[in-house]
Amino acid sequence: MTRELLINYERCLGCRSCELACATAHSLAKSLFGAVLGGEAPLKRIFVSQSGSRKVPLNCRHCQDAPCIDACITGAMHRNSDGIVTNQGGEAPCTGCWMCVMVCPYGVIRAETGKREAVKCDRNCTDHTGVPACVKACPTGALAFTTVDSHSGKKRKEFLERALK
Amino acid sequence: MKSRDKAVNQMIKAAGEREVETVWDRYQTQQPQCGFGELGVCCRNCTQGPCRINPYGDGPDHGVCGANADTIVARNLVRAIAAGAAAHSGHARHLAHALKKGLAGKAPAYGLKDEAKLRALAARVGLDPELPAEELVNKFMDMALEQFAEGEGPLKWAQSFLTGGCGETFERLGTMPTGIDNTIVEMLHRTHLGVDADPVNLLLAGVSCAIADYAGSHLATDLADIMFGTPGPVFSQANMGVMKEKSVNIALHGHNPVLSDIIVQEAREMEEEARGAGAEGINLMGVCCTGNEILMRHGVPALTHSISQEMPMLTGALDAMVVDYQCVYPSLAGVAECTGTKLITTMDMAKISGAVHLGMHEENAAEKAREIISVAIEQFRARQGRPVNIPSVSSKVVAGFSVEAIVQALSKLDAADPLKPVIDSLAAGSLQGVVLLAGCNNVKVPQDDSFLVIARELAARDVLLLATGCGAGAYARHGYLTPEATLEYAGPGLKAVLTAIGEANGLGGPLPLVLHMGSCVDNSRAVDLAVAVADKLGVDLNKLPVVASAPEFKTEKAVSIGTYAMAIGLPVHLGVVPPVLGSRLVTSVLTEGVKDLFGGYFIVETDPYKAAGAIFAAIQERRSGLGLPTREWE
Fold it and tell me: Which Pfam families does the UniProt entry name for this protein (chain A) (predicted)?
């Protein structure tokens, strides 16, 4: 079964380790020290926000019915063979019309520095086991990379333990 | 709400219009702040880290070296105490060097000014107070400088200026320092990778460091009084309305009076030069504790404090901000660039990129002071024709309540036994207790809000209020350092006591609601007062209905002050959660365990109304212990 990036919101401490790891994975050097020493400014594609007393990580959900794909005029935004929604390697290059930014309900698409080009989670960050960099970097398990059913099973178990205590 | 201060809010608006970034903007851009740091479970003491402990128990519970959350939290906390102690004692050391050079004829700006204070201190530390002044001051200075070095016995300044009971407790628990510097240095040693991993042992070392901090702070107060005079009651003003469009406006910011006091003296000689530049005169004003030092001694108006330190520049009327050290935001350089203010750093160990550095040395203090004032006068010329936006917000201030000034005022009621009226009032219950409100502002708290709420709640319930540092600054800017505030907010018992003292001193009304005792090193003055009361009653400090509160603290110095206040036996309220919650053990030691060891303990409460209740309850517990009548919170 396909693994998905799922969020345990209550576990997020707001350390932004996921943001740093995401950006590093998208750097040329592919390492924090290398990217910093090389003067690179790679962009993150996951965003930790403070919402009331909660700290919340958010990135692309890779929706089945993805409004960004429908709205893309050039055909840059597409779903690849792994099921990942990306504007890299599509029918035509991204022209930076920002239609995808406007229709994305989560606000997780941003602009490349100094370019008319949309930037989003593209999963070009996974390690040899296929786990995304943000998930690997998360020290509390707020970000999980697992199958949906396994995640819901775990939540079900936690709920029952609480409810029937 | 960012601030309770109307002038500050006016300037925040001005900053927004001019797109000048302030502390509040930067705080927003820092969101979310790292939860590991907030909990104190991040260790960066070696390059195998940074290590972080998962507070949910669902991840690493040890760092690479094996340190667990208790060790990491304790190490981080005691390092902060060491930094605070280093800052206060560094301040004292600068004063000591200045006076030493002054006595040797190498620094003409410095010398013995307050002989009576010298003699009183000499008697306390075991010197013959009857010696000729020159011989005495030299002996005193030798002893003062010895405090920094590792001695063989207990640290003199800690032993001499606390109760005998405190000294015994510290000796028994091994927390009595033998010198200031070696105690601080040992803390850096202990917290190095692979040294002290026992959280309780680390915390006790932290207490030792905090006691060294008390000694350093006391020494800083003592030396400043000897060199520049012991404060007595002064009348002045506070808040940004004290700026004058047509004067050379100079803000003195930081902590040490070693330069600012000289600037105050030299400015009097340079009025003519200022008038020559078309100004009506030189208008000196204070920020933070340098401001408190020159307010206490010279009545120099207080401009603003702590987190609002960037705001006065936004008036467009501030010609120079002269800084020494501690709590001086590097951001000032950027604001100064926008507003044309000259930001002048003066200490070679505290420079800021983008500022003008005019390094002050003890030998050239007066010349440097004049040079600094000249730069401000030039800037006054340059700003002519530019619009200014000075908030018309200011408050009357009565300050200058050193222990000497308080005893002097009380002696008008009872010359033979000045403390008796206060002790009698405490016993009868017309005064319920005494609370020292200290510490900083913190961007996480609406500026001044917690200070004001706690003061009103406690004053209404007959609690005598003392204040120092930026806390005193908050009360100054909101009109709480006035007799009018006493009439408005004090409960009947407190009002009667403050009125009796005020009228006996010919004020025709009460003393101010809050007594301004000075800067943050001057928390030593408040301790001196508590020690005098304790000695008079023949009980220890940990029995007195006296509480310390730091409702909006932020600095490592405040952590250190809070720790020594706890160690001498006071309940200490903190209005901002310190980064210790990652260790259940450390948290419980600080809030409960230390009570059995020292008598003092920490109360953490961020809601100011609940905090006032908790402080009042702590006072009642102490009153009950002394067999005094108690009161319900109503």
Answer: Fer4_11 (PF13247)
